[in-house]
């Protein structure tokens, strides 16, 4: 009985501690939201105060930010790059992981090790040569940057897909091939539905990375024609270190809303998919 009481007290204490930690993580987002409705002078002078009275400016920050950054064009380019890159990453890496897990030889082991190694190499080591190669190959468009994202996103995706495939029985695939299915039809009709949990979790992780990425589009894209949301927001910085904080706060709110909604809708699949891809097999 005494142990049960101690256990309940420990549970309540842990709940309180984790609740405080959660508030500490969420509060900057709340602060970002209400500061987007303040006049620029009060954001730095009273950042923790609510936008009441003369501090409240309404939607003017949003209107100025959209006008100064070309926000809607940037959102279209961000959406296009994110969707295309995630689709290409998922299809290519799942097929690669399927082949690696079913064909056991030195070549497939080398490919798998190279994919894992790509997760270890810091981006800063390759960014200058990458930008040069991308410029030579004319990959400085929203379509051209997709293969670049495929290269950087393949490591994590192949790791998760191959881990899940090792635990999947091969008997279903053999039955499909006996019935006359070619390898491609076997993959899309049999293997792809089996991989659905890992598809969802990997797609969420890749989408969050690509949507919020600043450095890779900045190095690759032709910035005179194409700007993603992180790059467009950065253009609110003026000369001599001046920043339109009101417009920047407003644009950051608009930038995080789509990915937060996407994450909240799909969050229940993340843990199950990551565990399936990283622990099984």
Would you kindly provide a written description of the structure presented here, covering whatever features stand out?
There is one protein chain. The protein is mostly helical and 281 residues long. The chain has a single domain (62-278), classed as MetI-like (MetI-like fold, Orthogonal Bundle). Helices cover 74% and strands 0% of the residues. It contains 14 helices and no strands. The chain has helices at 2-35, 40-45, 60-69, 71-102, 106-118, 127-136, 145-165, 171-178, 183-194, 196-212, 215-220, 229-234, 245-266, 268-278. The protein starts with a helix and ends with a helix. The relative contact order is 0.14. Residues 277-281 have low confidence and may be disordered.
Strand content: under 5%
Largest sheet: none
**In total, how many domains does the architecture comprise?**
1
| Uncertain ranges | 277-281
Q: Please, what is the CATH homologous superfamily?
A: MetI-like
Oligomeric state of shown chains: single chain
CATH topology: MetI-like fold
Work out the helicity level.
Answer: over 70%
Q: What is the level 1 CATH name?
A: Mainly Alpha
| End-to-end distance | 41 Å
How many separate helices?
14
Order of helices and strands: HHHHHHHHHHHHHH
CATH architecture, please? Answer: Orthogonal Bundle
Shape: globular
* Rg value: 24 Å
Average pLDDT rating: 83
Structural class assignment: mainly alpha
Number of strands: 0
């Amino acid at each position: 009985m005494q142990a049960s009481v101690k256990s309940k007290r420990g549970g309540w204490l842990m709940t309180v501690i984790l609740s405080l930690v959660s508030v500490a993580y969420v509060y900057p987002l709340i602060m970002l939201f209400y500061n987007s409705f303040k006049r620029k002078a009060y954001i730095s002078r009273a950042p923790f105060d609510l936008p009441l009275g003369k501090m409240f400016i309404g939607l003017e920050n949003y209107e100025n930010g959209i006008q100064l950054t070309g926000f809607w064009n940037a959102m279209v380019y961000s959406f296009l790059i994110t969707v295309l890159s995630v689709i290409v990453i998922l299809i290519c890496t799942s097929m690669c992981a399927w082949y690696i897990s079913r064909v056991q030889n030195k070549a497939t082991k080398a490919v798998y090790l190279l994919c894992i190694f790509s997760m270890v190499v810091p981006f800063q080591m390759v960014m200058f040569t990458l930008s040069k190669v991308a410029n030579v190959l004319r990959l400085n468009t929203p379509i051209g940057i997709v293969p670049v994202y495929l290269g950087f996103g393949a490591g994590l995706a192949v790791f998760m897909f191959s881990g899940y495939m090792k635990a999947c029985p091969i008997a279903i695939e053999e039955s499909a091939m006996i019935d006359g299915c070619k390898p491609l039809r076997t993959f899309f009709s049999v293997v792809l539905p089996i991989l659905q949990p890992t598809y969802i979790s990997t797609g969420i992780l890749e989408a969050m990375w690509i949507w919020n990425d600043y450095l890779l589009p900045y190095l690759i894209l032709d910035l005179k024609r194409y700007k993603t949301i992180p790059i467009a927001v950065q253009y609110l910085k003026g000369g001599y270190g001046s920043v339109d904080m009101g417009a920047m706060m407003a644009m950051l709110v608009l930038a995080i809303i789509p990915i937060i909604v996407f994450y909240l809708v799909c969050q229940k699949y993340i843990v199950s998919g990551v565990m399936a891809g990283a622990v099984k097999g």
